[in-house]
Every structure is written in C-alpha cells, then in structure tokens.
Amino acid sequence: MTSIAEKTVLDRADSLCRARGVRLTAQRRRVLAILCASARPLGAYEILDAMREGSRALAPPTVYRALDFLLEQGLVHKLESLHAFVGCNHPEHPHSSQFLICNSCGEVTELEDEAIARSLGSAASMSGFQPQRRVVEVIGTCAGCAQKGR
Amino acid sequence: MTSIAEKTVLDRADSLCRARGVRLTAQRRRVLAILCASARPLGAYEILDAMREGSRALAPPTVYRALDFLLEQGLVHKLESLHAFVGCNHPEHPHSSQFLICNSCGEVTELEDEAIARSLGSAASMSGFQPQRRVVEVIGTCAGCAQKGR
DNA sequence: GTACGAGACGTTATATTGTATCCAACGGCT
DNA sequence: AGCCGTTGGATACAATATAACGTCTCGTAC
C-alpha cells in the first residue's frame, strides 16, 4: 500500500539528499519506504524481515547501515525506549522532536514543541552543558486508549 | 570504598522500603550499593561483574530482577540512550528527572527541572495524552569537557 | 511448632539488538 | 581503461535482555 503521503515523503527525501550531495540509494530508500508505510515504529529486525520479502536474504548490517544514514540525514528517528525507528514527519529542517508513545495501542506521535525545546535548552545552559542530541520520550496512554478505558 | 554519602543513601533506601512494606533484600541492596559507589552509569553486565567479585557466580536474571525492583521503587534510573543505570539522588519523593550525559567524559547529571516537567506535561495534555513514564536525556558535552576543548 | 503461600532467588537456555571485519561491486573521475 | 572512494554482501560475534522452571525463604495462620 503506497499512500500519496508516503510518496511525497520519499520524493522530498530524494530532493533533500540531492540538495545535500548525499546518495539516497535503493536500499536506503527502501528502508525509509518501509518505515513510512508502517503505522508503528519498527525494530531493525522487523525492517529486515520486511526487506527480505520477495527478494534475496539480507543481513543485519545492511539495515543498520541504511538506518545510520537516514538518522544522520534526519529522515528517521530512533525511539530509544522501544529500540525502534520511525520515519520523520518533517525532515526539511534540523529539529529535535519529542515523542508520545502509547503503551496500549503502540501509537507514536511526534511533537515539535518549542516550550519543551526552550526549557531543555535553558536547563542545559545553566549547567554549562552543550547539547548535541535530545532524547525526549513520554510513555503513557494516548487519548483514544484512555477513553476506551485501557 | 564506602563513602558517607553512599551509606546514607543505602540507609535512606532501607527506611523507604520499610515504610513502603517492600523488601530491600541483600541482593537488591548490593546492586544499589554498587551503583551508588560508581561515578558513572553501569550496564547490567558491569553490575553483574561487580557482584561476582569475591562471591559465587551469578546469572543475568539476578541483576535484572534487582534492577526492576529498584526502578519500581525509584531508587535507580535507567538511561535508555546508554543502556545503563544510575542510583537516584533523591528517592524520597516520586519524580521524573532529566539527565545531561557527557559523551566525552561520561559524566551524568540528574536534573529535576520544573520548567521541563511543566512543558512536557502541557504538551501531553494538549494531546490528551496521559504520561506514565518520562525519558528525557540530553547527550552532549559537559562544562568541564567543553573548556578543555574536547 | 508446623504447614502454607507469596515472593525472591538460582539456573539453564535462549531471544533480541547491535557491531566488527573483510571483501566484492558500483560509480564517478581522469 | 584504470583508479579510488562509497556502498553493500556475508560471516561471525558481542552486548543486552528475557523465558521458564524449580527451589528456597520468610511471614503468617493455625
């Protein structure tokens, strides 16, 4: 199932990479497509399984290398608390997002909240700390699941 | 080396657990002591190695079970981005802390910043999300290492 | 004091996640 | 064509975490 939204994400990834002078190869594009097509975050080995379908066998390093590239380019994010990966909603500008992770239905929402970013930044600078990477994940119950009483 | 500070942490853990009607057994106390004695976060297998010294061999589940208990009681925290654990500075009240992790010297600072907690909370409630656990880790360069030009 | 039950622990095996290494294939360049 | 840097294939392995099951221990009730 290739939705229109997914297609534009891939197209945008193409132009982004061209503009940056890096190569979105077939393998990398494939990993990104799999992540974008999934409603949920996927583990590296789930991606591996998805890539194996209909094609020859692949090994873990293939997926991890593609993921490393996509992470560097900001095209995907890693959810540390899940050991899983998601496609990014808005890869054009560098950003540090936050994630709401429902442990009932598995849904993940990517936020880009200025207030959180600011409070994190000022807490860091008060300590003289220079941030490079931010991991902000809130695990809990999403609105839908809360209503259903789960 | 058993510092005074470490001793009071263990003593406070004892009384906390007694007050809560849960058992801080010898194994659990040992894991907590090892974590508190360490200047850095420790992986589960590092704790396991430390516990093996001078005593009989232990298996991973022993350590993971002790860690699960200590996490539940808020006596230790898990650093998801490092797959490692640290003793908590102030276990008396339930809290969601934030961590500054220096990737040069490995030092970890636990913060309890109200502004961050508030901004996270309001972002979650705007989405109708009910938080249960918060993972906030900022990876970067600490003040000391930044000065040394690392 | 003894029997019971829940929780804690020991032990083995295994699942899951992630890397090191080395070599082959490809692509752009001169 | 020949060179060289990047990408990918393949094997092996390291690191992190859990399942399953039996045994022991401790508090409690009788």
Automatic annotation (TrEMBL), chains A, B:
<feature type="binding site">
    <location>
        <position position="102"/>
    </location>
    <ligand>
        <name>Zn(2+)</name>
    </ligand>
</feature>
<keyword id="KW-0804">Transcription</keyword>
<keyword id="KW-0408">Iron</keyword>
<dbReference type="InterPro" id="IPR043135">
    <property type="entry name" value="Fur_C"/>
</dbReference>
<keyword id="KW-0963">Cytoplasm</keyword>
<dbReference type="InterPro" id="IPR036388">
    <property type="entry name" value="WH-like_DNA-bd_sf"/>
</dbReference>
<dbReference type="GO" id="GO:1900376">
    <property type="term" value="P:regulation of secondary metabolite biosynthetic process"/>
</dbReference>
<comment type="similarity">
    <text>Belongs to the Fur family.</text>
</comment>
<protein>
    <recommendedName>
        <fullName>Ferric uptake regulation protein</fullName>
    </recommendedName>
</protein>
<feature type="binding site">
    <location>
        <position position="142"/>
    </location>
    <ligand>
        <name>Zn(2+)</name>
    </ligand>
</feature>
<dbReference type="GO" id="GO:0003700">
    <property type="term" value="F:DNA-binding transcription factor activity"/>
</dbReference>
<dbReference type="Pfam" id="PF01475">
    <property type="entry name" value="FUR"/>
</dbReference>
<feature type="binding site">
    <location>
        <position position="145"/>
    </location>
    <ligand>
        <name>Zn(2+)</name>
    </ligand>
</feature>
<feature type="binding site">
    <location>
        <position position="105"/>
    </location>
    <ligand>
        <name>Zn(2+)</name>
    </ligand>
</feature>
<keyword id="KW-0479">Metal-binding</keyword>
<keyword id="KW-0805">Transcription regulation</keyword>
<dbReference type="InterPro" id="IPR002481">
    <property type="entry name" value="FUR"/>
</dbReference>
<dbReference type="GO" id="GO:0005829">
    <property type="term" value="C:cytosol"/>
</dbReference>
<comment type="subunit">
    <text>Homodimer.</text>
</comment>
<dbReference type="GO" id="GO:0008270">
    <property type="term" value="F:zinc ion binding"/>
</dbReference>
<dbReference type="GO" id="GO:0045892">
    <property type="term" value="P:negative regulation of DNA-templated transcription"/>
</dbReference>
<dbReference type="InterPro" id="IPR036390">
    <property type="entry name" value="WH_DNA-bd_sf"/>
</dbReference>
<keyword id="KW-0862">Zinc</keyword>
<dbReference type="GO" id="GO:0000976">
    <property type="term" value="F:transcription cis-regulatory region binding"/>
</dbReference>
<keyword id="KW-0678">Repressor</keyword>
<keyword id="KW-0238">DNA-binding</keyword>
